[in-house]
Design goal:
The complex is a heterodimer of chains A (302) and B (294).
Chain A lengths: L1 H11 L19 H26 L4 H6 L12 H8 L3 H31 L6 H10 L6 H13 L7 H23 L5 H8 L4 H12 L1 H16 L3 H6 L8 H6 L10 H32 L5
Helix pairs in contact in A: 4-14, 5-8, 5-11, 6-8, 8-11, 11-14
Chain B lengths: L7 H29 L2 E4 L3 E4 L3 H8 L1 H36 L3 H9 L6 H11 L8 H8 L11 H29 L3 H9 L4 H12 L1 H15 L4 H6 L11 H11 L3 H32 L1
Antiparallel strand pairs in B: 1-2
Helix pairs in contact in B: 2-13, 3-4, 3-7, 3-10, 4-7, 7-10, 10-13, 12-13
The chains are: A mainly alpha (302), B mainly alpha (294).
Amino acid sequence: MALDTTRTQATGTSTHPRTPAPRRAPRRRGGTRLWVKIVITLLLIVEIYPLTWMFLTSLKSNSDYLNHSTWSLPSTWEWGNYAEAWTTGNIGLYVQNSLLAVVPALALMLLLGTAAGFALQIMVWKGRNLTLLVFLTGMMVPPQMILLPLFTVYFQTGLSGTLWPLILTYTGTGLPLTVFMMATYYRSVPRELFEAATIDGAGILRAFWTISVPLVRNALLTVGLVQFFFIWNDLLIALTFTNSQDLRTIQVGLLNFTGDFGATQYGPLFAAICLNVFGTLVIYLFLNQKVMKGLTSGAVKG
Amino acid sequence: MHRVLGDRRAVLLLLGPALLVYSLIMLVPTLWSLGYSFTSGNTIDGFTGNGLDNFHRLFTDPDVRHALWFTAKYAVAVTVGQVVAGYLLALLYVFFLKKASALIRTLVFFPVVLPTVAVGLLFKNLFQVGPQTGPVNSLLNAVGIESIDFFGSSGHAFWVLIGMDIWRSMGFYAVLLFAGLVDIPDEVLESARLDGAAGLRLIRHIVLPMSFPVLMSSLIFSINGTLKAFDSIIALTNGGPGNSTSPLTLYMFQTSFTYGDYGYGSTIALLLTIVCLLVTLVVFRVSRRDLTKD
């Protein structure tokens, strides 16, 4: 929200209509080129090398890792580390738990958030601005503030020991940002569209589902992606509500990974880290532009 | 004319479920937690009221003071680091890479989506001394410097933590600030260049003031996030050595779940909430005031 207003202020100083932006005047001096190249090279090394090192280490046997230089390639390529991480390290179970918590939470959050965004932005009634503000305050409250009462409730209602605490908590904590973003997207949809539709005999609820939802399909994907990363990468909530090993999500499982083997098995540990990174990597490879746009527009969450 | 769009029953049906879930998960527990801060005990053993004891303890607890100080130190260092690194990257994208920047932008952004726990474990191994010398210490050895036990002293651990968080999120702020820099009209830059401004002078007198608003928003987002940092710290140092890298978030978690004191945990959570609100308010005020001055 802050971004939008600042943008208009920045452009407002221009007396000319906007032109496509990164079309700058050509540089004159060729001398600046060399240091730019050095900076880029350093940047690439800093970004890529840690991930490459991680991947190579995930293919080393324990003695290979401990006895040879950390720079060396694996002397034998131990792809079995991945199988070991998946089964003995329980990563398979943890991934399954994560999916079972993330997917329902995402679906619920998007459904409720879109409906609320529609009601707050398209529909006309007294108090809708105040209600939006009530949702926004939720973004300021640190999750630490709600953990203990929720723990009590889940414990006393017997929900502890299932994945429901995670699903419910993720849905609730994700709603403020979802409602805010969906309401913002609905701002660009003209109200007249729904007035016309309802005159044609479709009820407003039907109009919401059959007309407005397809219109904000793109926004749904963006918000869904942003929330997916937040929930998938969450540690605090998962750590609080998973009281048994069978319920651990991938992040909690990875944090406790070394414990399951007795002594640290570096190959499987790195394989587990790689498997965890791999999920987000695949999504990022295909949808990076959308992810970048979505995450920066969801920056208000902090 | 707004008859159909003002249908109260429809508003209730569309908004009701979201408002209900939000209230039950966020609003009610927030108030409830406020109530907990006047008690001691936990869910399993039961709660007993203890009046203002927790608040008295909060003000005299050296661990709280330490955690608060660490939170502040960490938030300032990471925020400054993230925004400065992001801004330098954004300048690089806009003024030196231009159209070719898309690939670099995408690449530097990538760590943002990585799970923090994975990044934490990765950095722990990158900086380790034993049983195997990690890449960073190997590099130090290669240039003739002794290995450093990065997680053995609080000073070193702090800087590794800061470095990791900057590595993780500079790409994010670079993209955010890039959007602000791209919005500066070419005409303004051109006329400034014709007036003889170039290089650092151009950046200081034209680019910096014109991207000030988006710089301020980045600062707010960043401080808001770093005050609540938890995952990266627990994965990299787990607050150690000792409790030297333990922020309020971690101290609250340990008080509640390791020591089972939910009452005092709630009091620390309240302190954290107040700190977050105050800091955001102050940064917001300051940024507003400076804007009107320009």
